[in-house]
Amino acid sequence: MTRSVRICLLPGDGIGPEIMREAVKVLRAVGERWDVGFELSEALLGGIAIDETGSPLPAETLAEARAADAVLLAAIGGPKWDTTDPAKPRPEQGLLGIRKELGLYANLRPVRIFPPLRGASSLKPEALEGVDMLIVRELTGGLYFGERGREADSPGAATGGGAGRRAYDTLDYREYEIERIARTAFEAAAGRRGRLHSVDKANVLESSRLWREVVHEVARDYPGVELIDQLVDNTAMQLVRQPAQFDVMVTENMFGDILSDEASMLTGSLGMLASASLGDGTALYEPSHGSAPDIAGLGVANPLAMLLSVEMMFRHSLGMPEAADTLSGAIARTLDDGYRTRDIADETTDPAMLVGTVEMGDLVVARL
Ligand code: IPM
Ligand code: MG
Q1: Whose CA is closest to atom 12 on ligand 1?
Q2: What is the CA radius of gyration of the chain?
Q3: What is the phi-psi region of residue 160: left when phi exceeds 0, alpha when psi lies from -120 to 50, beta otherwise?
Q4: Do 122-150+164-267 and 1-104+270-368 fall under one CATH topology?
Q5: The pTM is what?
Q6: Residue ID of nearest Cα to ligand 1 atom 7
Q7: Any bridge partners for residue 197, and if so which?
Q8: Which of 95, 137, 273 best tests ligand 1's pocket when mutated (most atoms within 8 Å of CB)?
Q9: Could you give the percent of the chain with pLDDT greater than 90?
Q10: Which pLDDT does position 346 carry in this prediction?
Q11: Ligand 1: which atom is nearest the Cα of residue 99?
Q12: Domain 122-150+164-267 is of which CATH architecture?
């Protein structure tokens, strides 16, 4: 009997709908081959949801997501909705809202080098030797979700400066939040090369000192994993100095946001970095890149981070490791054969091998 799987699709804004179409093509092909019926439902999130409903995360979207076996998200946001007015809705509230509502506290971002793309990285090819890391970013706490506020007219007495507007965000973590993300990271490291870097700013921040304490307590349950504390500024430097030292890295929400964009450059393009956001219920899969409004609608966006996110969904939510291996093999062969979207092309790329979004999707599907 055909197995049926329910996927909630959130194409979002910018290049989102274009790359989502390629993901759907892959799902159709995989469904046929593995005899799985993918029931796809599309819902609104981000800017398009603001335009159509006034809310970046409509209640129907949340209900669809909760009812699904997995959620696939492309990208949200764009200049159309950029505002500094706290009273206006922003697309990013939709993304942060769905992460929080689904309890997706663990964001896995694998940084994997496809050998033919070495030349597309901003680092020298020698520096990329042996790079294969997993960034485990805490996703529902820290600076993104702490208490925040604005004052229209703050007296300014504390600083000795003049009166004026004031704004603040708070970096807040509770023990259980650190403990569960640490466990996710230790489990991942135990299944890989057994090395975990815990990244913090314990020389300055109280929240980082608690982070470090709790991570070391969890470490007692994983004697086979080597734990290394590293300060976040040093990590930013080590990522471009000697990236092969990292196996698994675990860190606070905002540090992870910044470090994962930096690490994506090792792969050649932010267009190659997939992600899985896991919690206790339905998981969500999305590329780590944004909606790239500058190239939206041009048909040139790289769909591979989206397809690699589908691969992660097969593995983590759907129990389809074979389909996952087949998809990642098809992506690797497409790159081996020399096809490139423009973000991963370099001066040695034959212009005849430069392809658009749809063609890249077709090439991968043909190799499944
Ligand atoms: C990411 C993105 C988001 C984040 C934005 C779009 C809110 O940069 O997933 O890394 O900061 O988490
Ligand atoms: Mg980011």
Answers
A1: 257
A2: 21
A3: left
A4: yes
A5: 0.95
A6: 92
A7: 228, 249
A8: 95
A9: 90
A10: 87
A11: 12
A12: 3-Layer(aba) Sandwich (3.40)
